[in-house]
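#onboarding

Welcome to the new folks! Below is a worked example of what a typical request in this channel looks like: someone posts a single protein sequence, and someone else replies with the predicted structure as tokens. Don't worry about understanding the tokens yet, we'll cover that in week two.

Example request:
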Amino acid sequence: MLAKMVAELGPWSWWVAGLVLLAAEIMVPGFFLVWIGLAALIVGALSLLFWDSSFWVWELQAILFALLAVATTFAGRRLTLRNSTTDEPFLNQRGASLVGRTATLHEPIREGRGRIRLDDTLWQVMGPDLPAGTQVKVVSSNGRDLTVEPVSV
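Example response:
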């Protein structure tokens, strides 16, 4: 059935495949089918030019499509990563967003470990031994642990 459709549609079969992939992009989460659909449209454009040529066999078309799909996917990924700027650079790095903030020790730091309250969260902190109530500044973040130092007056 598929071979019959390709034979009937001729070079337009690649255009149909490309448009189906672009339409599927709407249904599927992510942003990758658009690049594969673009590769199919490019092969479709080349098919319109070379359909009657003896070298334009289906094997060459399939190989070209595969190569173009990989190339457009990498180019699209590079393009989207280069142009992806955000107003929340630490959105998924909550600990890193706290570096530079000051807080009061909620629990004393004993043997290098203590706790501070920032906003509505108690955070594990590491630093020199200090009594509760001391003002500290967050100097670094390692996952969920924060490193603090006393605020110099």
